[in-house]
Model the fold of this input.
Amino acid sequence: MNLKDYLSITPEIQEALAAGKPVVALESTILSHGMPYPENLSFAAEVEKEIRACGAHPATMALIGGKIKVGLSPEELELMCRGENVGKVSRRDFATYLATGKTGATTVASTMMCAALAGIHVFATGGIGGVHRHGEVPMDVSADLQELARTPVAVICAGAKQILDIGRTLEYLETMGVPVIGNQTADFPAFFCRKSGFGVDYAAQSEAEIASIIHAQRGIGFTAGILVGNPVPEEYALDHEYMERIINVALQAADEANVHGKNITPFLLAKVKELTGGESFETNVQLALNNARCAARIAAALCELKKAE
Ligand code: PSU
Ligand code: MN
Done:
């Protein structure tokens, strides 16, 4: 067995990659474990539409039937959105899911792995995992951070949710040598809010400039990824203090329900949605669409830079 036996790339994505056209990777955990059905289905359709409107090709990842799926059919998207018997796959789960044929939704970490295997350099998501608040006690540090340190894919996100310790998350990324670039912001965004109070390493002026940084990182042979913080559009941003209160209630609920490990992130996401009466959901959708458009334009600029080599 080798990689070719596991990779299952749709003809559309195969052709796009062969022709040097822009492709944007998308994760499936945001669908299966981050949003309710059927809202996730319309979100999945919308995000793919936005990427196409920007002239790029969307490649949603999943592990299905022992294959690494790069690009999903409408039936496969439906399966991931229904989320019945769909696990959450990070790097440690990858081989088990391939061997057993279980259906797995990919996180930021495993989507980066799939993208790198397929030759895709840009990936759009909502928020990344990170160091959990008081994570030094259970040592809960998302595998997303380690993956950013080892896999050369640029991740376009709206920052990290306040459910995490954003300061420690950024310290970890610095230690691991991961560039953290702001898209026209000097402040690392906090998902629902445009600012976290922590700075990025560099505030890029444009998406073209971000593409040039990704190009340089690849050119010098560095194998770490790049994290791009793209703030939620102003009109959908939520108040920082309000979200802080909501998140403290959610964290308390997680504590009382004794939720740990891989279940804590989906638990907190659902609780925050419940406590904000759906207001946060609209923000979540809009920031993810915004990241998809940004990623598509970065991917297109990167293709131009490669052609000009
Ligand atoms: N944060 C969000 N929404 C998400 C996730 C995180 O705001 O959907 C998902 C992503 O797939 C991310 C994963 O990679 O949760 C992190 O999980 P963990 O903390 O267990 O590594
Ligand atoms: Mn964890």
Observations:
- The CA atoms of residues 75 and 81 lie 10 Å apart.
- The pocket of manganese (II) ion (ligand 2) is lined by residues 140, 142, 261-262 (CB under 6 Å).
- The longest helix spans residues 279-307.
